[in-house]
Write a structure and sequence with these properties.
This protein is of the alpha+beta class. The protein has four helices and six strands. α1 runs parallel beside α4.
């Protein structure tokens, strides 16, 4: 394996880590209605379990309300049950045609708890990025041992690996800062 392929693999892993972080962040409640809050809810329908967006239309008519309109009205009860089971801290209201979820404002204490959990989440993703860097550096050292690169090339590659890692850590920090700001806004 060439050094370039180690870099490509590491960078691909880091990109996937960032994408996963962004996906995780979208599911965190901020006190504003956002359809991504219910995106991960799985509904039991027609003998299988499906994401909510495959059985219903999810709409955000205003900043404090999410509306879920099933394509088959017989699924209203299953959707309601799935939202309760998902333990989102939200109460669905079934009016016979659609389900409305009112997003309550977050208390200051709850905002701080969420910000703290976001910080823990950020550290998990920083560790994942560092693990990718570790794998990259191990590959570079292996290439040096196998005499496919020189010691100078290894040192240059180590510096480049650190630059790439720092860049992805910065992306994590930016995403986290944005989400924390969003959570702390009243």
């Amino acid at each position: 394996m060439s050094v370039d392929s180690f870099f490509l693999a590491a960078e691909e892993g880091m990109k996937k880590t960032i994408e996963k972080l962004k996906l995780e962040l979208t599911s965190i409640r901020t006190g504003r209605a956002n359809s991504s809050v219910v995106e991960n809810v799985k509904v039991e329908s027609y003998g299988s379990v499906m994401p909510i967006n495959q059985v219903a239309g999810v709409n955000v008519p205003d900043a404090k309300t999410i509306e879920i309109k099933p394509w088959d009205p017989s699924l209203l009860g299953a959707i309601e049950k799935a939202i309760i089971k998902a333990d989102l801290g939200l109460t669905p209201v079934n009016d016979g045609k659609l389900i409305r979820i009112s997003i309550p404002p977050l208390t200051e204490e709850r905002r701080k708890e969420i910000a703290k959990s976001i910080g823990k989440l950020a550290e998990e993703f920083r560790v994942a990025i560092r693990n990718e860097r570790r794998s990259l550096i191990e590959g570079i050292k292996k290439a040096e041992k196998e005499k496919t690169i020189t010691e100078d090339d290894r040192k240059k590659a180590d510096i480049e690996a650190q630059k790439i890692t720092d860049n992805y850590i910065k992306k994590i920090d930016e995403s986290i800062a944005l989400k924390e700001k969003e959570v702390m806004q009243i």
